[in-house]
Amino acid sequence: MKLPIFAANWKMNHGPTDARAFVKSFLAHYPRQQDRKVVFFPNALSVTTVAEAVRDRPDLAVGVQNIHFEDKGAFTGENSAPMARDAGATHVLVGHSERRHVFGESDAAAGQKVQAALRAGLTPVLCVGELLAEREAGETEAVVLRQLRAGVAGLEAPQVAGMLFAYEPVWAIGTGRTATPADANAVHVAIRAALREAIGERAMGVPILYGGSVSRSNAPLLLAEEEIDGVLVGGASLDADGWNAIVRA
Ligand code: PGA
To answer: Is the C-beta atom of 222 inside 6 A of ligand 1?
Structure first.
């Protein structure tokens, strides 16, 4: 059985001091749960702080929001997968829409980052999603599946089976506009079918998260859908009490 996954993408918020206070307050009200997994994605400077705070909790994990695809070298300002691992991360977001659309990251770069993550033993969470204009042009599935295939290009089936995926329509991120649970589920069905084509029955066990203006009120509705295995939450994950309410959904 797939455990539901609740992922918090803090984006460029919560430096080490805030992160420490957040986790302290969160842990005080969130005893260990056997039936769900929570993954925090703090900024790189706060990863060690959060990783140390949740070390004794197998139901909680920590990831980074981005990595470079090289393991080391002259790439000023970048962090690599082995470094993220060393800092306590077990997961990494790859191809988040802000990386794609604010920083111009290509589909191919996302594929290279997935490979770098796997080399270092990190679990990649490959994010895919269409722009509003692409949705309106009826291109949602084509865009999402193009991003998906480029992200897993060249991988062996067991590697893909060990990944996580997140569908995040770009027009729903940070806008307060969420895809309806049925619309989101329809895209998840297409992602599942593409994964099945690529890796067979193992695709059934791969978690596919939904992200984009997830809140405490819509999270239970989204999670009730057959193919939505978890949520990736930005804005609503920034406050410890609000996040606690979502992960108890
Ligand atoms: P949001 O962000 O929940 O603030 O829409 C989600 C994300 O970007 O992962």
So the answer is: no
Which amino acids are annotated catalytic?
96, 168
Segments making up each domain of the chain, as ranges: 5-247
> Which run of H or of E encompasses 7?
strand 5-9
Instruction: Give 149 Cα–ligand 1 centroid separation in angstroms.
Output: 23
Q: Is the pLDDT of residue 87 over 90?
A: yes
Dihedral sign of CA atoms 42, 46, 49, 55 in order: positive
pLDDT digits (tens, 9 = 90+) for 182-193: 999 999 999 999
Instruction: State if residue 4 touches ligand 1 by the CB under 6 angstroms criterion.
Output: no
Is the overall model pTM greater than 0.85, yes or no? yes
Give residue 212 CA to ligand 1 midpoint distance, Å: 5
Right CATH number for 5-247 from 3.40.50.300, 3.20.20.70, 3.30.1300.10, 3.90.1150.30? 3.20.20.70
- Cβ–ligand 1 distance for 9 under 6 Å, the answer yes
Between the alpha carbon of residue 109 and those of residues 43, 187, 194, 202, the distances in Å are: 20, 23, 20, 25
